[in-house]
Design goal:
Shape of chain B: globular
CATH class of chain A: Alpha Beta
CATH topology of chain B: ABC transporter involved in vitamin B12 uptake, BtuC
Largest sheet of chain B: 2 strands, antiparallel
Order of helices and strands of chain A: EEEHEEHEHHHHEHEHEEHH
Number of domains of chain B: 1
Structural class of chain B: mainly alpha
Strand content of chain B: under 5%
Strand order of the largest sheet of chain B: 1-4
CATH architecture of chain B: Orthogonal Bundle
Oligomer: heterodimer
CATH topology of chain A: Rossmann fold
Strand content of chain A: 15-25%
Shape of chain A: globular
Number of domains of chain A: 1
Number of helices of chain A: 10
Helix content of chain A: 25-40%
Strand order of the largest sheet of chain A: 6-7-8-3-9-10
Structural class of chain A: alpha/beta
Number of helices of chain B: 11
Helix content of chain B: over 70%
CATH superfamily of chain A: P-loop containing nucleotide triphosphate hydrolases
Largest interface: A-B, 23 and 19 residues
Chain lengths: 257, 295
């Protein structure tokens, strides 16, 4: 469904991505993990059209989408839940969701609104409340719901658990699991590697702008070299992946590393 | 007490025009972070449209929509010719561009029309008054306030009830995220300029009816009033722009009536002094606005 080949992106003279490559198949949940500054957000921003890559090619459903604008990409079926959620604080919950459906016809938008109200009960209760008053967890649900309003065929999420309390982190990963079970195609950037590997079919490990490893959670968990360097803060080398809800080594219940 | 009520009515009339001008400035600032110093030129263009059409014997009933239309078209043309080329540039570049547009439009009228002030007929009812008890109310102020209220209701409905309005508000809050949601940047920016032109056109009709004349530099004063009112209200806040316009209008009228005759001509200076004091204590203006991303 999504193919990224030899993607290079620069901020001035600094290369944030160096020939990164990945693929996401239809119905797959793919994680993109790595330390701060690895280039994860740059990769996602390049796919989403927020950054124009210096080199490389991005194809979605066989079409070259390299360098397309975010609004064009959304119309092509690719939606992004941005880092830090970036909900519109002065718009109500309902308005935030409606703007997420700006590209779909009015009748379909109304259908999707009903679906979101059913899926996110906590949001339905605050339908007319300005989104700036939502808690972190509610805001993250709103950000995901807003992206779903465009009925995307590929949903990308950038650090969905960032800055959330442990109990809300569980909620976010439960939601990702639910979306996976519904057959949605997801590409998720996440620093909380252990939790991400639990819910993903496959994952890519990014370091210094390069994809240094890929595979299933089980495969990556055996890679002591990777965990030693940057995933080890969440899962110790050789240690089995923690089960859902199990506390992380720092005792935060699996919060973001 | 009667004098105060009289001043309030006069101030609301004047402030209503400022509110419309400020709202136009704020709408464009919201989506582009552009403080448009060429905003007054929309009124200049409308003024020359009035001059030529009234001179040809057309009535104000026909001229009025033409002034509004010319302001909308000029606003769209300015966006297309000048501002679309500097989208995403620094605030300083945008500011310089707007000054450039202001000077170019003034120069065109100066070179190809006339440097002198050209008078035109005002509608006969502009100077009419009517009385309610001890109050002597101008028909003009009544019409201005009524039209402004209707315009603000219409603008509010547009912003609250339509997908375009929602897109505009989302883009004003965080342009990049709005684009991620599929909001088309071209559509929303051009829509903002069209709305800004519409508001300037409506304000311009009343401004020109009162002035009864036009000159190449006629846009400077309405531009300053609009920008100042938008700054007072809190740049980028649509609600703040309306409040700022009304506050500025009321302040001018109240000060002019309260200051001794010997220094009445300093009213504008005193108003600026008060605005400076406001910015010392509330640099963000009366209404605080959070902007996530600039375009």
């Amino acid at each position: 469904m999504l193919e990224v080949e030899g993607l290079t992106a620069r901020y001035g003279a600094i290369a944030a991505l160096r020939g990164a490559a990945l693929s996401v198949g239809s119905g797959e949940v793919v994680g993109l993990i790595g330390p701060n500054g690895a280039g994860k957000t740059t990769l996602l921003s390049s796919i989403a059209g927020l950054l124009t890559p210096a080199e490389g090619r991005i194809t979605f459903e066989g079409q070259d989408i390299t360098g397309r604008s975010p609004e064009q990409l959304l119309r092509s079926g690719v939606a992004l839940v941005p880092e830090h959620r970036r909900i519109f604080a002065d718009l109500t919950v309902e308005e935030n969701l409606r703007i997420g459906g700006v590209t779909v016809p009015a009748a379909k938008r109304a259908e999707l609104l009903d679906e979101m109200a059913e899926r996110f009960v906590v949001l339905k209760e605050k339908w007319d409340v300005p989104a700036g008053y939502l808690s972190g967890g509610e805001a993250q649900q709103l950000a995901i719901g807003r992206a779903l309003m465009s009925a995307p065929r590929l949903l990308m999420m950038d650090e969905p658990s960032l800055g959330l309390a442990p109990v809300l982190v569980d909620l976010v990963f439960e939601l990702i699991g639910t979306l996976r079970d519904q057959g949605r195609t997801l590409l998720v950037v996440e620093q909380n590697a252990s939790r991400m590997l639990e819910v993903s079919d496959r994952a890519y490990v990014l370091r210094s702008g390069e994809v240094v490893a890929s595979g299933t959670g089980a495969e990556l968990s055996q890679r002591d070299d990777l965990f030693d360097t940057f995933v080890g803060s969440v899962v110790a080398p050789g240690e089995d992946l923690p089960s859902a809800g199990a506390p992380a080594p720092d005792g935060t219940g699996g919060g973001a590393a | 007490m009667t004098e105060l009520a009289q001043n309030l009515i006069d101030g609301l009339g004047r402030g209503s025009i400022y509110a419309l001008l400020a709202l136009g400035v704020a709408v464009v600032f919201g989506v582009m972070h552009l403080l448009n110093f060429a905003h007054g030129e929309l009124i200049t263009v409308g003024g020359y449209v009035a001059l030529w059409t009234l001179g040809a014997g057309w009535s104000w009933y026909i001229v009025t929509p033409l002034i509004v239309l010319s302001a909308v078209l000029t606003s769209l043309a300015i966006e297309r010719v000048a501002f679309s080329r500097v989208r995403g540039s620094s605030d300083f570049t945008l500011l310089l561009t707007s000054f450039g547009v202001h000077f170019v439009i003034s120069a065109i009228f100066l070179l190809y029309v006339s440097a002198s002030v050209k008078p035109f007929d005002r509608p006969s009812w502009v100077t009419n008054t009517y009385s309610i008890g001890p109050l002597n109310i101008e028909v003009y102020d009544t019409v201005v306030i009524a039209v402004t209220v209707l315009t603000l209701i219409g603008t509010t409905l547009l912003l609250q009830r339509t997908m375009f309005g929602l897109s505009l508000r989302a883009a004003a809050a965080d342009f990049d995220t709005a684009r991620l949601m599929g909001v088309r940047s071209d559509t929303v920016i051009r829509g903002a300029f069209a709305l800004s032109g519409l508001l300037a056109g409506i304000a311009g009709v009343f401004w020109l009816m009162r002035a009864g004349s036009i000159s190449p530099g006629a846009g400077i004063t309405p531009m300053l009033k609009g920008v100042l009112a938008a700054l007072i209200g809190g740049l980028g806040s649509l609600r703040g722009a309306v409040i700022g316009g009304l506050v500025l209008g009321l302040a001018e009228v109240l000060l002019r009536s309260r200051l001794p005759d010997s220094i009445a001509s300093l009213t504008e200076g005193v108003v600026f002094l008060l605005i400076a004091l406001l910015f010392i204590f509330r640099p963000q203006g009366l209404v605080t606005v959070k902007h996530a991303v600039r375009v």
